[in-house]
Automatic annotation (TrEMBL):
SUPFAM superfamilies: alpha/beta-Hydrolases
GO molecular function: hydrolase activity
Source species: Siminovitchia sediminis
Keywords: Hydrolase
A Pfam family matched in the record: Abhydrolase_6
Family matches, as InterPro entries: AB_hydrolase_1 (IPR000073), AB_hydrolase_fold (IPR029058), AB_hydrolase_sf (IPR050266)
Stated name of the protein: Alpha/beta fold hydrolase
């Protein structure tokens, strides 16, 4: 099955690829593609998410390969910009590592890159215990608030999370929590911006530091007053920062 994607903007402009977080789908970038209408924007639903739910499997490596195929099809001769959040940011790191000279600008938001061994060991019993709550509107409403999902997007979020199978959720979390920065990431030639929220946990902050130190083209920023969800929590700031980064102006 071909990975589902949506396409907006000016086809003769630089290509921007937006990669969503785990459990969401391409809809999480709706505000961004409206703002970047003067770019050629493509937003896929990653494998086992959204309208790509029927894909056979999920892995960070295979997802990166599918996105690379999409960029090869749509981005010939263009400047390529990739923006990822959480799971999507891990996939963006994998792409930068597999094709070090492929991407011109990358914005990596809240990427876990410091594996949590105890968390991985506890995943299966934890998912078994909590999985029924993914069918609960009340629980999903609480989760959506933590992730800064706007009320207008709640039904999309609830639909996607409630449709996910237990084995898929477990697989995605295993991939997420065991991800390490590929050694070839150090060769990536893109201009790379790393962000993490001030209110994110220790592992996320350590990951941002580790990523920033793994490639000389990285610049790291901590975003004040934000937890896990910078693009959704402060879209106006996110838009300005991304545009300033891509277009060569100074950051805040």
């Amino acid at each position: 099955m071909i990975m589902f994607y949506r396409e907006w903007g000016s086809r003769d402009r630089p290509l921007m690829i937006f990669l969503h977080g785990g459990g969401a789908a391409g809809w999480m970038w709706d505000h961004q593609v409206q703002y970047f209408h003067d770019y050629h924007c493509i937003v896929p639903d990653l494998p086992k998410h959204g309208k790509s739910r029927e894909e056979k499997e999920f892995s960070i490596i295979s997802s990166a390969e599918k996105v690379i195929e999409l960029i090869n099809e749509k981005g010939k001769g263009k400047k390529i910009i990739i923006i990822g959040f959480s799971l999507g940011a891990q996939i963006a790191l994998q792409i930068l590592s597999e094709e070090p000279e492929f991407i011109h600008y990358a914005m990596i938001n809240s990427a876990l890159a410091d594996p949590i061994p105890l968390g991985i060991q506890m995943l299966e019993p934890w998912v078994t215990l909590l999985f029924p709550l993914t069918r609960s509107r009340a629980f999903s409403r609480l989760q959506s608030k933590v992730l800064y999902i706007h009320d207008d997007d709640f039904e999309k979020y609830f639909h996607d999370t409630s449709q996910m199978e237990k084995e898929t959720l477990l697989r995605i979390l295993q991939e997420n929590m065991s991800f390490v920065i590929p050694d070839t990431f150090k060769h990536a030639t893109a201009n790379i911006l790393i962000t993490v929220g001030e209110k994110e946990n220790h592992w996320m902050k350590q990951s941002a530091k580790k990523i920033s130190q793994s490639n000389p083209n990285c610049q790291g920023l901590m975003i004040g007053g934000v937890g896990h969800g910078f693009p959704l929590a402060k879209p106006a700031l996110f838009h300005k920062m991304a545009r300033d980064w891509i277009e060569g102006r100074g950051l805040l």
